[in-house]
Design brief:
Largest sheet: 14 strands, mixed
Number of helices: 15
Number of strands: 29
Shape: globular
Helix content: 10-25%
């Protein structure tokens, strides 16, 4: 056995693979791993090919050595984005997700045996990494074919490279296996990722080469599984530390379904050419609302997708403490369509301090790949999922230490809503809510209007508990209980709701989020009790009576949508019914014997038509 592998403790079946495969490569530096990506050739272009029984050689991806990194493009359009229906559970532990045996009609043990036999016939990369980041994460291992070294390179950038030379060794808490040909021989060409939860190890079997469902979200699943066992949560959130020009500091954690504004919470306020801020455009009249805004709060990013809330980090202050669960960010570049769209990431990706990894972006050997030149799908249109993996150390002003959260916001995409065309887009610009309502919003996690990550229109659907449910392997009620415990254990963290896209008749994009963030930072996250009033819809907690930014009053129609002429109370109430009916349907899934008694009380309060005061009695609110 390779001397470096002797540092680690493996199961007998993995030892069997090690002793019988065609060769093992253990990269000890990222540069060494980078060179492995292109095989032994000198052309700078490498096809990732597998011999598939009954089909012959199949090219899965083409890898190009660009001046600024590794550029990966998949042959099939389908492989250029994550299939949301790819998770299967291979074990017999409790789960609400599809089990492998139920879907495919045979036990996963047979599939695992075939997978390990196939791996014996390959040259393999064994690469240690940490699930959850290099500082606080869990020692893990990647096992993949050497000709898929780009996958290992992507994993190293996402989760943090660990040199086997420098580690003391460990028994892996998680193992990711990569075996691409099986998607053709067993799964009709579909992406399939099987989670096999052993008592002491979480195994992830990736039967495809797009890293989204395995190297990215598969590791998220590992952290959620560990959290279920250890009673903590990896939240689906971005977070930032804000510092105003008066040196006030505020940490805001923004949650929500995809499209809910997590990435945007880390962005500066977009401005017009003359430096002002476009708050809204009336969708009926086309009339704009523009504000003058001077210097805004400095943004120091903490995380952009996975917030690990380890128990050992909690300080007892009554505020939730978190750190980033990743060592690199899997950034989607679909919004970068030309030079100048995003100067920060354009600079990072064009002239990085070390080679990066790009997906679904055009690549030419020896040339600089540009993040606004997206690969064309077979229909001639740009791929909607161009990606770049950016190590967090390259992000300007990045925060490396744990932070205590002052405000947890929840973002939802809202449709245009009027009296004539009522919909659920009734949320005002900023709502303050008690912990009970904060918990319910996280159970329901609305995807909202025209979500960019799903096909279809603006109907209201749930992303699932915590908005991370697509990646969880266990029981939804267990996650609901963990979220409730987390909220109750941290009474000094406060909660708000923030809409994006529309406020009633007004199209706002993400301007409402940016301005609410600025207002919160200038007020240390607090609001005076006499500045709010119970929202007409109890699910929205307290609406603001007034909001002023740099002497400019935000009109009441942006704060309480029932005051809009084109909505009125009747249009508002029709939209509130849509929202309330949706909550009723989704909350029913959680009302089981396993639900925390307080959780049952909160849902009972909702079912009885409880007021905001009733929710506050269950979970007191701090203004």
């Amino acid at each position: 056995m390779n001397r470096l592998l002797k540092k680690f403790t493996f199961s007998p079946e993995i030892v069997d693979v090690i002793e019988n495969c065609k060769g093992i490569y253990i990269p000890t530096t990222k540069q060494e791993l980078h060179e492995m990506v292109f095989g032994t050739g000198r052309s700078g272009k490498y096809d990732v090919v597998y011999d598939v029984p009954g089909r012959g050689e199949v090219v899965e991806a083409t890898v190009v050595r660009a001046k600024n990194g590794v550029v990966v493009n998949y042959v099939e359009d389908y492989m250029r984005r994550r299939d949301p229906d790819c998770m299967r559970i291979g074990d017999d532990k409790p789960t609400d997700k599809p089990r492998f045996a139920d879907v495919y009609g045979f036990p996963f043990a047979d599939m695992k045996k075939q997978t390990l036999e196939w791996l014996k016939g390959q040259e393999l990369i064994f690469m240690p990494f940490n699930s959850g980041g290099n500082i606080y994460g869990y020692g893990s291992m990647l096992i993949c074919p050497r000709n898929a070294a780009f996958f290992a390179f992507a994993m190293a950038n996402l989760q943090g490279f660990v040199s086997a030379e420098e580690t003391e060794g460990y028994k892996p808490r998680a193992i990711v296996y990569v075996a691409p040909p099986f998607r053709h021989t067993h799964f009709n060409g579909k992406q399939v990722v099987v989670h096999n939860r052993l008592d002491d190890c979480h195994e992830v079997f990736s039967y495809n080469l797009y890293p989204g469902p395995s190297a990215k979200k598969g590791v998220y699943s590992v952290l959620l599984d560990i959290g279920e066992q250890e009673d903590w949560v990896t939240a689906h959130a971005s977070a930032a530390r804000l510092t105003t020009q008066y040196d006030n500091e505020l940490v805001i954690m923004h949650e929500g379904a995809s499209g809910g504004g997590k990435s945007e919470m880390l962005q500066d306020i977009a401005r017009t050419e003359d430096g002002r801020v476009l708050l809204s455009v009336n969708t009926v009249t086309g009339e704009p609302t523009i504000l003058n805004l001077g210097r805004t709060a400095r943004i120091e990013p903490v995380c952009d997708d996975m917030a690990t809330c380890y128990p050992k980090l909690q300080t007892g202050s009554g505020k939730l403490t978190l750190v980033d669960g990743e060592d690199g960010w899997f950034l989607r570049m679909d919004g970068v369509t030309h030079y100048g769209c995003d100067p920060v990431y354009e600079r990072i990706c064009t002239q990085p301090s070390e080679p990066l990894c790009f997906f679904n972006i055009q690549g030419v050997v020896g040339a600089t790949s540009l993040i606004w030149e997206h690969t064309l799908d077979s229909n001639g249109k740009p791929c909607p999922n161009p990606r770049a993996i950016v190590p967090r150390e390259m992000v300007p002003h990045i925060v490396t230490e744990p932070v205590e959260v002052d405000i947890r916001s929840f973002g939802t995409r809202m449709p245009p809503s009027t009296r004539d065309n009522p919909n659920y887009g009734i949320m005002g610009m900023l709502h303050f809510i008690p912990p009970a309502l904060a918990w319910m919003w996280r159970l329901v996690a609305p995807r909202g209007f025209k979500n960019p990550s799903i096909v279809g229109g603006g109907e209201l659907k749930s992303e699932g508990v915590g908005s991370y449910w697509p990646f969880a392997t266990g029981k939804r009620v267990k996650q609901a209980n963990l979220l409730l415990k987390q909220i109750i254990d941290n009474p000094n963290t406060r909660y708000v709701l923030i809409p994006n896209q529309h406020i009633g008749v007004y199209r706002v994009g993400f301007a409402a989020e940016w301005l609410s963030r600025e207002w919160l930072s200038r007020h240390n996250g607090h609001v005076k009790r006499d500045k709010v009033t119970p929202a007409r819809c109890p699910l929205l907690g307290y609406a603001m009576l007034e909001m002023t930014i740099e002497g400019q009053s935000i009109r009441s129609k942006f704060l309480r949508t029932e005051t809009q002429d084109r909505m009125g109370e009747d249009g508002y109430d029709a939209g509130a019914k849509i929202l309330t009916d949706f909550f009723a349907k989704e909350l029913d899934k959680f009302y089981t014997d396993e639900l925390d008694p307080l959780g049952k009380e909160i849902i009972d309060c909702f079912r009885k038509g409880g007021t905001i005061e009733d929710y506050c009695k269950l979970t007191p609110m701090h203004f």
